[in-house]
User: Fold this.
Amino acid sequence: MEYIVYEQKGEYAIVTISREKALNALNSAVLEELDKVLDEVDLETVRCLIVTGAGQKSFVAGADIGEMSNLSKAEGEAFGKKGNDVFRRLEKFPIPVIAAVNGFALGGGCELSMSCDIRICSENAVFGQPEVGLGITPGFGGTQRLARLVGAGMAKQMIYTARNIKAEEAYRIGLVNGVYPQEELLPAAEKMAAGIAKNAPIAVRNCKRAINEGLDVDMDEALIIEEKLFGNCFETEDQKYGMAFFLDKNKEKVKAPFQNK
Assistant:
């Protein structure tokens, strides 16, 4: 691939958007490669994914304005669908996805980070949806995910004013889960990914499904989703061995298959 670097490190993997000279801006080729790399993730061995950008300046500075500038209405809608399809696929990906936001996360970059399960960022990170200053709306899910994450009022303020926010404010409003010095960001993401990978993979995947699907329905339906996914964990090796290990006083006779071998 030209713009995506994929590296598996044991039970987690790192996807790096590598278009550093363009601040990792998203064009059609990057979106297509991002979609393709998800096909290559070995879900038998990889239990968590990290998404980040190349260099120290930018996670993803936005969608490629040069490519968008001359699009027709139909082409603009198709470009939005391309981005939405990839980001929605990432959002629904079976395993947890952590965004390690190392710098600018503007427009499509902010939208990409929001399609991940967890966001952590560097101290120099900047988030924003600047689209209305360019005469367009956010097109890769920004009007929907931002409101769900930080509340409608804050989302409308950010989108209507096109004002960027720094890492500290992103943390204050709940857009990110943590802020780290630049050099500590990726190690922190890797530590978190490794911690997630130690837990029962079936249970972790079911938790992701329960949360994501439950947010789209009312509480009664959401609880039914949870009940089914809770029940789905039983009779699996993960559940049998996990509980046997918990009950084993010596912690030696039984070891869950998902624990470090």
Notes: The chain has a mean pLDDT of 95. Residues 225 and 231 are 10 Å apart (CA to CA). The beta strands are 4-9, 12-17, 48-53, 58-60, 97-101, 104-106, 118-122, 126-128, 165-166, 178-180.
